[in-house]
Amino acid sequence: MIFDDYFLVIPVYRLPESEYFSKMNDDFERLISKSWDASFRHSNPSLVENWRKSHRSSYGGDWEFNEVIGYIKLFFMGSQVRGEYWSTEPRRKVKTRKKQFEFKAHKLVAECEIWDKTNDGVLAAIEDYLSRCKKKLKGRHIDLREFESLKAHIDWLSVHKTKNTFA
C-alpha cells in the first residue's frame, strides 16, 4: 500500500559524499597519471583543470542529486512511525545518470510506537525509526542533514495530528 500522506522524505545514497569525491579524485589521478607526467601537469594547469571538469561530469557529476539511490518516506499510522522505501531499479547500485525509482516496501523496518504523546515523544519515535533504518541499510548513507537542522523547530505533535490518517 502506498501512502500519499507522508510528512518527511529522507534521501538514501550509494555512499557518503566524502567517499564519493575521494573515489572521483583517485580515479582522476589514476587516469591523468597514465596520460601526462608530473612536469607536464605542472606546466599546463589550465589543461589539467579542464580535464578535471570533464572527468567530473563523466564520472557522475555532483554527489547530492546524482548519487541518490533511494528515499524513505516517513508517515504516521495511528500511534506509529513508519517509512515506505523507494529505491532505484537495478539491484546492484553503481554510479549512473539514468535512474528510475520503484516502490520497494510499505515499511522499511518495523514500526516505532509513539509512547509519549508530546513533541519530544513523537521526535524520539521518529529518531528511533531512522536509527533502525540506518542499521537495515548498512553500507548506504542516509542523509539526515535537513532533518537534523529542522527537528528542533517543528511542532511534531501537530504534525502527527495533521498527518495521521489512521488516528
Automatic annotation (TrEMBL):
Organism of origin: Alishewanella jeotgali KCTC 22429
The protein's name: Uncharacterized protein
Domain of life (superkingdom): Bacteria
